[in-house]
Amino acid sequence: MTKPLLEGKTAVITGAAQGIGYSIAEQFVAEGARVVIADVNLEAAQAAAEKLGGSAVAIGSQCDVTSADAVQATLDAAAAAFGPVNVMVNNAGITRDATMRKMTEEMFDQVINVHLKGTWNGTRLAGAVMRENGGGTIVNMSSLSGKIGLAGQTNYSAAKAGIVGLSKAAAKGSRTWACGSTRSSPD
Ligand SMILES: NC(=O)c1ccc[n+]([C@@H]2O[C@H](COP(=O)([O-])OP(=O)(O)OC[C@H]3O[C@@H](n4cnc5c(N)ncnc54)[C@H](O)[C@@H]3O)[C@@H](O)[C@H]2O)c1
Predict the structure, then answer these.
(1) 22 classed as catalytic
(2) Which of 12, 20, 89 for a ligand 1 pocket mutation test, highest count of atoms within 8 Å of Cβ?
(3) Global pTM exceeds 0.85
(4) Closest ligand 1 atom to 141 CA
């Protein structure tokens, strides 16, 4: 019998109370991980954790990814419940679609904040825990919309394209760090 891929690993998945995030959590639990369902909707996060098998394998944590303090609190809760995070999935997202003519500044800011700043918060704060603990894996959710641009999604396409750049830059920084180069460091 093959060993489950994520046995003994702690995973934090943002926006996992429903949708793609929840499906990722389901698969991670099936592969032996213990997961934190980090979602702005606490009630839904706790219900999802229960559905996944309860506190032995999954807990819900209220987390608005636009807040660095909230993301840090979720990483701390993960460490306390299951051990330091090994896998971070920055998945939380919203859409506020409208044409350029009708999109408000608020709609633009909301989408950029949740996707781009949320992913930046999750990458840098989980990355800091991983640096202390010998490594880990960070998965950032982009979208086809960020690659090709979709009508009505100037905010979302910009955020999702930004996530690609953010992830590439962070990966290069951490590789440089892992090689012990003095040329640059992610700190
Ligand atoms: N559904 C698609 O077709 C599709 C395609 C490409 C990419 N994506 C991306 O995949 C991810 C998940 O999409 P989905 O369709 O499952 O979304 P969804 O709307 O079903 O679920 C999003 C979850 O994120 C949570 N959330 C919203 N704002 C949050 C915040 N500030 N902090 C924490 N949690 C927050 C919501 O409560 C919800 O549980 C998103 O990043 C989305 O952009 C989705």
Answers:
(1) no
(2) 20
(3) yes
(4) 41
